[in-house]
Amino acid sequence: MLHTGSIIINRIKIGFNSIIGAGAVVMRDIEPNSKIVGVPGKEINKRRRL
C-alpha cells in the first residue's frame, strides 16, 4: 500500500503486505510485511501476515 506523497526512486521490489507511509522516500527493495516511513524510508516494524 502506498500512501499519499510517497516517492519511489528507481526500480525496486515492494514485498507483499507492505505499507509505505505518507511522504516516505523509498530507494531500495522492501521486504514483505514491512512498514516504511521517513526520508529516506526506514522500516519501523513488521506487519502480521494476512
From TrEMBL:
<dbReference type="GO" id="GO:0016740">
    <property type="term" value="F:transferase activity"/>
</dbReference>
<dbReference type="InterPro" id="IPR050179">
    <property type="entry name" value="Trans_hexapeptide_repeat"/>
</dbReference>
<dbReference type="InterPro" id="IPR011004">
    <property type="entry name" value="Trimer_LpxA-like_sf"/>
</dbReference>
<protein>
    <submittedName>
        <fullName>Serine acetyltransferase</fullName>
    </submittedName>
</protein>
<keyword id="KW-0808">Transferase</keyword>
<comment type="similarity">
    <text>Belongs to the transferase hexapeptide repeat family.</text>
</comment>
